[in-house]
Amino acid sequence: MSDTPSPSPRPVSTLAVAGIFVLLAIFGVLARSYYLPTLPAEPQNEAPDHLPKDLAWRATHDSRRAYLLSLRQKQADQAAAYGWVDKANGVVQLPLDRAMDLVIQENAPKPTP
Predict the structure, then answer these.
(1) What is the predicted pLDDT for the residue at 2?
(2) Tens digits of per-residue pLDDT, 46-79?
């Protein structure tokens, strides 16, 4: 058995390494320009003039905030009031505290005689 000496590796030229880095840089620039979103040219916070009335609350940040506050107030008022949901079928609206008390009363264990 004779061991044949393996050939020594070829040295890598500095020009080849620099070329690889240049190609990676070009790829990075192209990937960034094609795949990352670009910033809009115009500000998006201005209200458009052609919005219908039912979407006017979406126009600006302040109008969305005011709409959300009024919606939350309406929901809070509904959660604390009595009223009819469907009078024909006998469905009522109760305040949450009262509804929880009624559920507890209905599901409480019955005393045994």
Answers:
(1) 63
(2) 566 676 777 776 777 788 888 899 999 999 998 8
Closest CA to 56 of 64, 65, 68, 44: 64
Res 47: pLDDT: 60
Report the predicted TM-score, pTM, of the whole model to 2 decimal places. 0.43
CA 17 to CA 61: how far, in whole Å? 52
78 close to 93: Cβ distance less than 8 angstroms: yes
Report yes or no: 51 and 58 within 8 Å, Cβ to Cβ. Answer: yes
User: How is residue 18 annotated by DSSP?
Assistant: H
Where along the chain do its domains lie?
53-107
Rounded Cα–Cα distance for residues 43 and 20 (Å): 40
| Nearest to 80, CA basis, from 100, 94, 99, 101 | 94
